[in-house]
Design goal:
Number of strands: 10
Helix content: 25-40%
Low-confidence stretches: none
Order of helices and strands: EEEHEEHEHHHHEHEHEEHH
Mean pLDDT: 94
Largest sheet: 6 strands, mixed
Shape: globular
Strand order of the largest sheet: 6-7-8-3-9-10
Number of helices: 10
CATH topology of one domain: Rossmann fold
Distance between the termini: 36 Å
Radius of gyration: 18 Å
């Protein structure tokens, strides 16, 4: 069966260095539109570095340099002339630990649209409601939008951060271990949410949780020592991996 989905982000021979340290080594892969791709691998394998390179979140790290090419549509992500703020509107990010702003729930979600110049209260109301619904949080907070985002539970805070990322209508959502700090019930809500979000956008998630990768992702990439060992349909990676190192990692024989 021919896959007619379009590439959303394409990496071609991407290498990333922190000073003399070669963190990502010649990685090439394509993230398809409206699919979930999981990036797995042991600690220190370069997963988060690779993820953050897709919206230039590594730029501020001293000594960081990147080689190769990454594109979203026709835009070269690593072009020095690229508007990074515009890139991050297209490629949103959710971090490992919830990081809501010390503002109201409403103002957390409205933050990005306001930065983009949206001043209409009526329009902001629509965006906030839509984004909170997309993040499966609206029903829980609709009667207390003026309450502090910091007053929410950990799982709710993470969904608030997802709503905040969605408010600027990104094409891609990068998620760096978004459920690692959450309990099983909150984790299940985040996983359900990811499956909903892929109806509208491309999701790339870094996870240490093999079961989570198996449950939510369409494709899985296995990184080891900064190298892409294997990248395939998730079912194949978990049942018939081509590389023994992939099998060792998934089966728990490698840490």
């Amino acid at each position: 069966m021919v896959n007619l989905q379009k590439p959303k982000i394409t990496l071609r021979d991407v290498s990333i260095y922190y000073s003399a340290l070669h963190v990502i080594k010649g990685v090439s892969m394509t993230f398809l539109e409206k699919e979930i791709t999981a990036i797995i691998g042991p600690s220190g394998s370069g997963k988060s570095t690779l993820l953050r390179s897709m919206n230039r979140m590594n730029d501020h790290i001293g000594g960081m340099r990147v080689q190769g090419e990454a594109t979203i549509g026709s835009a070269n992500i690593y072009d020095p002339k690229l508007d990074v703020v515009a890139l991050r509107r297209r490629v949103g990010m959710v971090f490992q630990k919830p990081n809501p702003f010390p503002k109201s729930i409403y103002d957390n979600v409205a933050y990005g649209p306001r930065l983009q110049g949206q001043k209409s209260k009526a329009e902001l109301d629509v965006i906030v409601e839509r984004s909170l619904k997309q993040a499966a949080l609206w029903e829980e907070v609709k009667d207390r939008l003026n309450a502090s985002g910091l007053a929410l539970s950990g799982g709710q805070q993470q969904r608030l951060c997802i709503a905040r990322a969605l408010a600027v209508d990104p094409e891609v959502l990068l998620m760096d271990e978004p459920a690692s700090a959450l309990d099983p019930a909150a984790t299940a809500k985040i996983e359900d949410l990811m499956l909903q979000l892929k109806q509208e956008l491309t999701v790339v998630v870094v996870t240490h949780n093999m079961q989570q990768a198996g449950r939510v992702s369409d494709y899985t990439a296995f990184l080891l020592g900064g190298e892409l060992v294997e990248f395939d349909v998730t079912r194949k990676i978990f049942t018939t991996p081509r590389d023994k190192r992939t099998d060792d990692y998934i089966s728990g024989r490698m840490g």
